[in-house]
Amino acid sequence: MNNQIKHPKGDRILLLTNNILLTIIVLAIVGPLLYVFLSSFLEPNAIIRKGLSLNASDWSLEGYTRLFTDDTIVRGFINSLLYSTGFTIVTVLVCLFAGYTLSVDGLVGKKVFMVFFLFTMFFGGGLIPTYFVIRDLGMLNTIWAIILPGAVNVWFIILARTYFKAVPNELKEAARIDGASDLKIFFKIILPLSKPIIFVLALYAFIGQWNAYFDAMMYLDDRELHPLQLVLRSILIQNEVQPGMVADVEARNELMRISEMIRYSSIVIASLPLLIMYPFFQKYFEKGVMVGSLK
């Protein structure tokens, strides 16, 4: 028995066009990533001469060796993990509390609070006033300058609020009849049902902070506190390879060879945490985004 669906000619053309476009988009995304990944294992001179090569003599792990033996890269990686993890925890907690509060029916002044939050999405104080606030609060050259300023994300609050509004009111009313407080309802009933939106917010927050470097460039003068992305920025844009990586290199062409190798390797290392995280978050991702965006 043939259960294959027979689409009309117009639908078949549309599906074929969509498949072709999606294939082109995937190739446009995967191609550069694959090129960078393979290039990180190749000698730069071999790439210049003949491009990607499968010849074993052209392959090398020197770029990764120099990265993992350099204190600047290792320290930057640890700093990025610390900043991204701390930022994710604080942001998710703040946005969940705010989103749940704004989802409660009968909250006095709810519309005023929503207007206030939405206003900040379109208007901000500006870079210089923000810097003065961070400075006057004594947060310069501290982890709090990276974690606190962006912890209140209005878009995350809206996603959480919409998700919580989809939770049946009967559950909350039944808990209140049993004498449960709002905090107990939130922690005992709402949070266990909110894994999809929690994982989505956590993934968004972690990725956003992991890829960020501007706040660190503005508020952190101490190089010991620089995150990985700021270190990589020096390598990729300013071509500042740390002395420890090339201490044994004297010739200029050798210096350029090592710099190029380190660039490719550093990009791969910086992408690893995100590539590792996403498969574990994927099952919650679609459900959390759809439920949190539509009601």
Can you give me a brief rundown of this structure?
With 295 residues, the protein is an all-alpha fold.
Description:
Keywords: Cell membrane, Membrane, Transmembrane, Transmembrane helix, Transport. InterPro entries: MetI-like (IPR000515), MetI-like_sf (IPR035906). Residues 77-280 form the ABC transmembrane type-1 domain. This is Carbohydrate ABC transporter permease. It is a single chain. With 295 residues, the chain is mostly helical. The chain has one domain (62-293): MetI-like (MetI-like fold). It is built from 14 helices and no strands. α13 (228-236) crosses α14 (252-293). The chain is globular and about 75 Å long. The two termini are 40 Å apart. The model is unreliable at 246-251 (pLDDT under 50).
Number of domains: 1
* SS-based class: mainly alpha
Work out the radius of gyration: 25 Å
Tell me what portion of residues adopts beta-strand conformation: under 5%
Q: Which parts are unreliable, with pLDDT below 50 for 5 consecutive residues or more?
A: 246-251
Query: What shape does the CA trace take?
Result: globular
Q: What's the order of the H and E elements?
A: HHHHHHHHHHHHHH
Continuous helix count: 14
**CATH homologous superfamily designation:** MetI-like
Q: Can you tell me the CATH topology? A: MetI-like fold
Distance between the termini: 40 Å
